[in-house]
Amino acid sequence: IRSAAEDSALLLVYYVGHGFGYQEPGELPRHYLQVRDSEEWAVDAPHGRGFDPYQVILEARKHYRGQLTGLALMVDACNASYAVKVVGSWGSPDMEYRTAWMGSSRQELAYDGCFTRELTALLEGGVPKDRHPQSSLLTHLRVTDLAALLDNRCVGQKPVTGGFQTHDPAMYVAANRAAHEAITRLGLSAQEG
Fold first, then answer.
1. Kind of pairing between the strands at 98-103 and 70-76
2. Helices vs. strands in the chain: H and E counts, helices first
3. Which are the contacts of 176, defined by CB distance < 8 A and separation ≥ 6?
4. Spatial separation of the C-alpha atoms in residues 31 and 53, rounded to whole Å
5. CA 129, CA 149: separation in Å to the nearest integer?
6. What is the mean pLDDT of each run of 10 residues along the chain (193 residues)?
7. Smallest Cα–Cα separation from 30: which of 1, 58, 65, 2?
8. CA distance 39 to 189
9. What is the pLDDT of residue 91?
10. Euclidean distance between CA atoms 42 and 51, whole angstroms
C-alpha cells in the first residue's frame, strides 16, 4: 500500500488460496485468509485466525490520505462473502480513496481454483461487445463487469462485489484485450478511440 501511495497509483491485490469465515457474537462477520503461517481453523488462538486484509485496508486509510488513487482487492477463497459487511464499511466518504472488491464465492467453498482459471481466460481473451454485460465494447474491465461475466461459470460459486465507487470507470482492474484489438483493426489508437 505504501509503495502505491508513493506513486499515487491504483493498487491491485489478488489472493488465491484458503479462506474461512468467522463471527464473534455481536461483531461483524470476518473473512480470514489462511496464509502460510496460519493455524488451520484455530480461531481461538491469538495468531491463528489467518490474515485479515480487510482490516489492514481500513487502517491504511488513516496513513495514506490523498495519496493512493484507489485499491482493488480480488479474493479467490472459500466463504468470501463473510467480508461483505466489512467491505461495506469502506464505502464512506472519509475512506480517502476509492476501493473495489470481488470475492469468488458467497458462503460456499471455492473449488479447485476454478474462479482464477476462468478469470485468467477472460483477461487473456478479452470481452467482445456481444459478451459484455452492458453490451458495450469497453476498453477496461472493472470488478463489477468481471463478476457478471464469471457468474455461474464455477459450480456452486457466485461472485460478490463491494467497495466504495466500484462503478467508477477509473477503478478498472484490467485492459480489455478484445477492445484494444478491435481499435487496432480500425487503425485507431486507444487514446483516440
1. parallel
2. 6, 8
3. 126, 127, 137, 138, 139, 140, 141
4. 9
5. 12
6. 86 89 86 74 54 83 76 90 82 69 84 90 92 85 90 87 77 88 79 50
7. 58
8. 51
9. 63
10. 12
Q: Check: CB of residue 126 under 8 Å from CB of residue 177.
A: yes
- C-alpha distance from residue 150 to each of 82, 104, 118, 136 (Å): 19, 9, 7, 17
CA dihedral sign of residues 181, 186, 191, 193: negative
CB 50 within 8 A of CB 33: yes
**82 neighbors 30 (Cβ within 8 angstroms):** yes
CA 54 to centroid of chain Cα atoms: 11
Phi-psi map region of 111: left, alpha, beta (phi>0 left; psi -120 to 50 alpha): beta
| pTM > 0.90 | no
131, amino acid identity: R
Rg (CA), the chain: 18
Report d(CA 54, CA 60) in Å as an integer: 10
How many Cα atoms are found within 13 Å in the side-chain-facing hemisphere of 122? Answer: 24
Sheet holding 160-164, edge to edge: 10-16, 70-76, 98-103, 160-164
For residue 61, what is its C-alpha cell?
486509510
Give the DSSP H/E element, type plus range, for residue 123: helix 114-125
Residue 177's CB: how many other CB atoms inside 10 A?
17
CA angle, 122 then 124 then 127, to 5°? 45
